[in-house]
Design goal:
By secondary structure, this protein is mainly beta. Helices cover about 5% and strands about 55% of the residues. The strands form 7 sheets. Strands 1-28-27-26 form a 4-stranded antiparallel β-sheet, with no helix packed on it. About 5% of the residues have low confidence.
Amino acid sequence: MSKRLLFWGLVLAVLPLATANGNAQNPAALLLERSVPLPGVQGRIDHMAFDSVDHRLFVAALGNNTVEAIDVPSGVKTGTIRGLAEPQGLQYVPETQQLWIANGGDGTVRIFDVHSFQPISTLRLDGDADNIRRDPATHQIYVGYGEGGIAVFDTSGRKVADVKLAAHPESFQLEKDSPRMYVNLPEAHKVDVIDRRDAKVISSWQTADAQANFPMALDEGSGRLFVVCRKPALLLVMDTQSGAIVARLPTVGDSDDVAYDPQRKRIYVSGGEGAIAVYQLQGRDRYAEIARIPTVPGARTSLLVPELNRIFVAVRQQGTVPAAIRIYTLGK
């Protein structure tokens, strides 16, 4: 048995005995397993990506103009990509062993080899390259950018389409079994629906009195879209056919990531207010907050990796305490 398999086997073996601190009905919904320090990393930390081949986590240290690489089983930082310009979105491409990095500072998407950390190419967009997603079927890569656009690239880096939007796009999600994708437009207080085949907007849904809709997650099987707003702090559940809001729940403030776990039918919202809110689906369009796990003020971004039963939370430097990535185990 490899050391990596032995590590994960031992962790999962002791999981039923674990507890965690929280302030809601099920404090064991998340277990803080360990914290991996990132010494020298200053400022805001943005999104993350997971290398499923070598079990590495890549972290966009926006305020530090770097991307940090962490070996997850050992909990050790193994490398740094420097000289970036406010890295925001990351996309790991397993077929080519590349990391795509969207830079908000200069609007570039820079592609690196994930083993040597050497640059491969640079793609230029019209400012503020932000969230990035990959279509698992076509392998095309979607990048939100500028004052209102999503650029579509093939794996060679050639732009094959460009979708114009009414405002800068934040988080977006792609359906696997249809050509639809959903895009948060916080400045326009709406969600746009795009047909990927025609690269055009086919519908727009308002977020009602909730504004600043930044993070988004998708339960494609149930036809439910999870949109988190900051003003006020609300989790909206939307029907993906009609756009109707079918549930509204208070959530943690200053959120920048939300994830859906289809196995447990749970939603995880991380917020800069200093907590992760956990919700359980209890019936058709019935969701209940079952835990609110304290983190650290400013810890807004997170990444759920279902195959590891882990969620990673980015913690920025606090005074003399270095920045870190907290690793939580998903409880029962």
